[in-house]
Write a structure and sequence with these properties.
The complex is a heterodimer. By secondary structure, chain A is an all-alpha fold. Chain A is built from 19 helices and four strands. By secondary structure, chain B is an alpha+beta fold. Chain B is built from 24 helices and 22 strands. Chain B is elongated and about 110 Å long. The chains are: A mainly alpha, B alpha+beta. At the A-B interface, helix 14, helix 15, helix 18 and helix 19 of A face helix 7, helix 22 and helix 24 of B.
């Protein structure tokens, strides 16, 4: 048991230790200062020239958003086209069929928005071409989109009045060439050495120990798994995601994958400090995020390692913890740690079935997605956090007897309006979606019986989890939900779209508005946002505003289940 | 004037109670989105209750229970309205007591031809002229065009010492309701009836013309956002509960909703704003908008006039320093002659000082016959007298006199230069006296720094506010006084445009500047400053330019104004925090109550051990309702501001209103439940 805890402590410690230098590197790269990776500059210049882009031109926040949205629209159309025709396209050794339009819509959007909700199973649902040019491609560019948007917000927090907030294409391309590609390459190499397949050959026939003949799916797995984690995408090559022995063969690959998915979100926080030369600010952000993370992690690890009392009653030994739906090579603690990191970070890959986690763990995982600001997805995690900072600054700024200001910029009605819309969207999507599903289910239980593998509280959790995952752009599922139906494909697809782009547009707009404002230098009377006190304020704002809104829903799902069980 | 500080005077309370009902009008309510949704909820409860009367429905609970919930919600609304109404009533009463001084009085109207007629003060129109004589009450606000008078302004300022007002210059304004003690003046009316600052202030306090300030709007958006979140939470709960087979009664839905939305701050928000203006009024400051009070809290730089703010009243002559080759007595005599008609305190003090050196001022009066008086102007920075025999005596700033002598080709002695420096570096003001452009010597004027002013500046510094002393003194004197008083910066030899420039420079750096002024030449700077406080004694132009008027003409008032602004913002912030923090406990009271019957396991969430679902819901709404009147005194008085630095202040307020806001309702709801449990 001790070694299991030590294992997760090592992963977390190593992540933080490496995130600090990576943060410094990110700040250097985005600032355009000299770094070791400058040998890639000619490649970038070539790309810009090919695209007819002047990467040195400063862009206003509106221009940033325009660029971001346009390029995303192009990717979406491209992805739809491939997915709907993959059956007849090359690189399809297993002869998988083309996708139905509603499933293709859901899949294209899901990967475009860095969510990776998968209503299909990779082995049978996608050709290798789709895996590489749709799935993997979107996993890279959606992560880079988030990072670029995040840097735009960094720029807006600089001192002084700024109209131009850097160049979107510059940040976007550098995120790919200087950060995602090199690190993904390293991670993929480790995976290949540990036995993850990397091939374009089709299924491999195999005779099992029992003498049956079976065919094992394979493909260009290692490359995709690397970016799946690193870009906090989460969409697995195989349906079973990182619980699958070929996606995540050993405890070591589990550590590396888990490390890879937390690395950049934390590094972005430190990059903020280095970029703005406000180191204390990044400590505050990191402190709040870490506190939130640990608060969710602790009960999850505890309950998973405790085991399931209902199964214990049947006389099964619970020494290893609650092992239903978990991999024996990974264990309860590493599965719990993975469950929480993947939900707070909107990565959504799984190495055990969240559906089988204990109720409190399931709730913690949902809370990780409901708050969606403890580290969060690459780039977008900080954007979500930024909205809470705006709200916290507004309230605490008043409490020190001034009209609220963030780093010398006044927060007024317009910024507040945008922040509120973004903050409102999340509960609206999650609760609204779940309410719609619950209403349909109640009004005609026989027709929709196929939806829920477990009726009752757990079935409610499954529906709640699905929309939470979609709204948080997470992508993991409480499996057990029959979700490949037009209703789920389209409703979650809409949730995905809104929940990705509004929370990117909102913070970038706020930042752009703030950047244009008059800058007031700090004095003894101004609220400092880089203090522990303010951190505490943000922490409570996140919990009271974001988490408590879900309390009644959670009471009917995981809490009811928990209290019935114990 | 009466400064009754009791928050709830019976007369005001009865008026406020009446208004609380009048304000239930949905057309009024809709201005406050939070309370408007409560009103909608209350209306629904009324319908449900009436429906139960017609046809009992066991799923909705008993008639008595539903009726009680309805009553409590109605009370919540009334309490919120009462809070606003009592704040309005107090503001109006305060302004009314000021206005009472200027009710119908006879006015002696003078027409273009000079004919006099007596009309009522309310008939005076802007631009008309009237006469007032000793013993009469000034009928309305105006500016003296002819004459000089001593005026008793105690009706407005509470200050018993009479003041002098005269035509021309910066002390030409008179206020309606004040009494002329001596002489006779002709005054031009400057405001239409019903449009004086006081009238505007009263309108500002009353609901009709009250505009929400920018910060109030932003906060309202935040609160409306929270309200929307809870609308979503409550609406979606219906299908959730249907799925879980635990139908929820309408009363429970509405109770959950009303408890969760920020009714505490929503109900008190406008009261807080009005109370801020009221507090300013109690400090005898008329604000022209609520925004001005808010901005005052943000001030980074305070421009303070030296005289009256930092030093006591005026400088006094303390020494005559004669130039080489000039007899000491001659300097004293000439200085006295030049000061005989000088009514400024400095001038008088020169005469007094000379008297101690056996110079008889009365005997010197004869020199005045046929003499020409030279008034002090900001441009020449000197004054004096030209006697009938052509002797020119001048006194003024060192460099002004130096220019005068040097232009006449006379020597400006080195000893005088030295003396000027010495006097200035000791914090004194050197006044150089010349006769026919020949320097006679230096009169030393000394400033006396107000006791306790250093502490006030220290307090301002800890608030993060930079203080700037504005003075006509030379830089040396200014530096001495500035460092003795503890101000951060000073503008020496200040001309009106210097103030303007300084304000512009600070604003360019993003700072907010406040200043006080009275003269017409202060008007541009008053308008440029983010907070401009004009003295009531000042010219009409100055009063129009500023966004506040100080009835006491007290230059230290700026400091108070800043604190009132900060108090206002802090009260808003702390009550918002308190209101939101309350939700934790309310969730734990109501959510288990909603589901306990259908899902007994969720009884574990009933951490407060409340008696029954119905008692829990009643206790929560009752607590929610009672909170509003309980916090009215805080909203009206404001949260005390302490200059301990922003971080310490935040820590303190977070502890009291944040942690307090989490804990208080746990205790409060439990206590109420103990009582309610006896009945349900």
């Amino acid at each position: 048991m001790f070694s299991e805890l030590l294992g997760i402590a090592i992963i977390f410690g190593a992540t933080v230790l490496l995130a600090i230098p990576l943060g410094l590197y990110l700040a250097t790269v985005y600032r355009g200062d000299k770094s070791w990776s400058d040998f890639l500059a000619p490649l970038e210049r070539l790309l810009f020239r090919a695209g007819g882009i002047d990467a040195r031109r400063g862009m206003s926040w509106q221009q940033h958003l325009m660029a971001l949205l346009t390029i995303n629209l192009v990717w979406f159309l491209f992805a739809m086209l491939i997915l709907c025709t993959q059956g007849v396209l090359p690189l399809n050794p297993d002869a998988n069929p083309s996708m139905s339009p509603d499933l293709a819509f859901n899949t294209a959007i899901s990967f475009l928005v860095n969510c990776n909700l998968q209503h299909y199973s990779g082995e049978s649902g996608l050709s290798y071409l789709s895996q590489v040019v749709v799935i993997m491609f979107l996993q890279f560019v959606s992560a880079a989109t988030g990072m670029a948007a995040c840097v735009v917000v960094f720029n807006a927090l600089k001192e002084g009045t700024n109209e131009k907030l850097g160049n979107f294409y510059d940040y976007f391309v550098k995120s790919l060439t200087r950060v995602l590609l090199p690190i993904a390459l390293l991670v993929a190499l480790v995976l290949v050495f540990q036995g993850t397949p990397m091939t374009f050959a089709g299924k491999q026939p195999l005779i099992t120990l029992q003498g049956d003949t079976t065919a094992v799916s394979r493909g260009p797995v290692a490359a995709m798994v690397a970016i799946k984690e690193l870009g906090t995408n989460g969409g697995g090559f195989f349906g079973a995601n990182s619980a699958h022995p070929l996606e995540n063969p050993t405890y070591l690959t589990n550590m590396v994958e888990n490390f890879a998915l937390v690395l950049i979100p934390i590094a972005m926080v430190f990059a903020l400090g280095f970029y703005l030369k406000r180191r204390r600010l990044s400590y505050m952000v990191f402190g709040v995020m870490t506190a939130g993370f640990l608060l969710l992690l602790a009960p999850t690890v505890y309950y998973e390692m405790q085991g399931n009392p209902a199964i214990a009653q049947m006389g099964t030994d619970m020494q290893l913890g609650a092992m239903e739906g978990k991999e024996i090579r990974l264990g309860a603690a590493a599965s719990a740690y993975w469950g929480i990191t993947n939900t707070i970070i909107s990565c959504g890959s799984v190495n055990s079935m969240h559906d089988s986690h204990m109720p409190i763990s399931g709730m913690s995982e949902m809370l990780g997605m409901m708050t969606n600001a403890f580290y969060g997805g690459v780039g977008v995690g900080f954007l979500n956090f930024f909205v809470f900072v705006i709200i916290a600054v507004f309230i605490s700024g008043l409490m020190v007897g001034r009209t609220p200001e963030l780093l010398g910029k006044k927060i007024e009605a317009r910024e507040m309006k945008i922040a509120i819309i973004v903050a409102l969207l999340h509960p609206l999507m999650i609760l609204g979606g779940t309410a719609m599903a619950a209403h349909l289910y109640v009004s005609n239980p026989t027709e929709y019986a196929g939806w829920l593998a477990n009726p009752g509280y757990h079935g409610f959790s499954e529906m709640l989890y699905e929309y939470t995952s979609a709204a948080a752009n997470n992508g993991s599922g409480f499996e057990g939900l029959g979700d490949n139906t037009p209703f789920w494909n389209i409703s979650t697809g809409v949730v995905l779209l809104l929940s990705r782009f509004l929370p990117v547009i909102g913070p970038v707009a706020i930042a752009g508005l703030l950047a244009r404002k008059k800058y007031t230098p700090e004095s003894a009377g101004t609220l400092r946002v880089d203090t522990a006190t303010f951190g505490l304020m943000v922490f409570f704002v996140i919990w009271i505003i974001a988490a408590l809104a879900f309390f009644p829903a959670l009471a009917l799902g995981p809490l009811a289940e928990h209290f019935s069980l114990y | 004037m009466s400064n009754n500080n009791s928050l709830f005077q019976p007369a005001l309370v009865s008026e406020a109670v009446k208004q609380a009902f009048v304000k239930l009008d949905p057309r009024v309510m809709v201005r406050n989105p939070v309370m408007f949704t409560v009103e909608l909820g209350t209306a629904v409860m009324l319908l449900v209750t009436l429906g139960l009367l017609v046809q009992p429905d066991p799923t909705q609970g008993s008639f008595g229970y539903n009726f009680t919930v309805f009553l409590v919600l109605l009370l919540t609304l009334l309490f919120a309205n009462f809070a606003e109404a009592i704040a309005e009533a107090r503001g109006k009463a305060q302004a009314g007591s000021l206005r009472k001084t200027r009710e119908e009085t006879p006015a002696r109207l003078v027409d273009e031809r000079g004919a006099e007629s007596v009309v009522s003060s309310s008939q005076l129109r802007k631009g008309q002229f009237f006469l007032v004589e000793a013993g009469e009450i000034i009928p309305t606000d105006g500016e003296i065009v002819e004459g000089l008078a001593t005026i008793d302004e105690s009706a407005i300022t509470g200050e018993s010492a009479p003041v002098i007002r005269e035509a021309g210059g910066d002390k030409s304004s008179v206020t309606g309701g004040t009494k002329v003690l001596s002489d006779r003046i002709k005054v031009v009316v400057t405001t239409e009836p019903g449009e004086s600052f006081l009238d505007k202030m009263i309108a500002l306090v009353e609901g009709a013309s009250r505009q929400k300030t920018p910060n109030e709007i932003a906060l309202t958006i935040l609160l409306a956002g929270f309200t929307l979140v809870f609308i979503i939470v409550c609406l979606t709960l219906q299908p959730f509960a249907a799925y879980a087979n635990t139908p929820i009664a309408v009363a429970s839905f509405i109770a959950l909703f009303v408890c969760l939305i920020p009714t505490t701050i929503g109900g008190l928000l406008s009261a807080i704003g009005i109370a801020g203006m009221d507090r300013a009024l109690r400090a005898n400051v008329i604000t022209k908008s609520g925004k001005a009070v808010e901005t005052a809290g943000d001030i980074d730089v305070l421009l303070l006039d030296k005289t009256g703010t930092i030093t006591i009243g005026n400088r006094k002559a303390t020494h005559f320093w004669h130039a080489p080759g000039v007899a000491a007595q001659h300097l004293a005599v000439m200085s006295t002659i030049a000061s005989l008609t000088d009514e400024t305190p400095e001038g008088k003090s020169i005469v007094e000082l000379a008297q101690t050196q056996q110079v008889d001022a009365l005997k010197l009066q004869s020199h005045l016959k046929g003499a020409e008086l030279i008034k002090f102007t900001a441009e020449t920075r000197s004054s004096g007298i030209t006697l009938a025999d052509g002797t020119r005596i001048r006194k003024g700033a060192a460099d002004a006199i130096r220019q005068l002598t040097e232009r006449a080709g006379k020597l400006y002695p080195a000893e005088v230069v030295e003396r000027v420096q010495l006097v200035a570096s000791n914090g004194g003001t050197p006044l150089v006296v010349s006769q026919n452009d020949e320097v006679l010597g230096v009169v030393e004027l000394q400033d006396i720094i107000k006791p306790g002013i250093q502490e006030r500046f220290e307090r301002l510094r800890r608030m993060g506010i930079k203080t700037v002393m504005v003075t006509g003194d030379n830089p040396l004197t200014a530096r001495f006084i500035a460092s003795a008083a503890g101000v951060d910066d000073f503008i020496a030899e200040a001309k009106p445009e210097d103030k303007m420039q300084y304000i512009r420079a600070e604003q360019q750096q993003g700072k907010l500047v406040a200043m006080m002024g009275d003269g017409t030449n202060d008007a541009p700077a008053l308008a440029q400053a983010d907070v401009g406080v004009a003295m009531n004694s000042g010219t009409q132009a100055a009063k129009e330019a500023g966004n506040m008027v100080d009835l006491d003409n007290d230059p230290t008032k700026l400091i108070e104004v800043v604190e009132i602004g900060k108090q206002l913002l802090m009260t808003r912030g702390t009550l918002t925090t308190f209101s939101i923090a309350n939700d934790v406990a309310k969730y734990f009271a109501i959510v288990p109550a909603l589901f306990m019957v259908g899902i007994p396991a969720l009884g574990a969430l009933n951490v407060m051990g409340l008696h029954s679902p119905q008692s829990a819901i009643l206790s929560a709404v009752i607590f929610n309702a009672l909170l509003i009147p309980a916090l009215v005194p805080l909203a009206l008085r404001g949260v005390a501001y302490q200059p301990v630095g922003a971080s310490a202040l935040l820590r303190r307020n977070l502890l009291i209103y944040g942690l307090g806001g989490v804990v208080a309702p746990f205790v409060g709801i439990k206590l109420i439940d103990l009582v309610v449990g006896l009945f349900v």
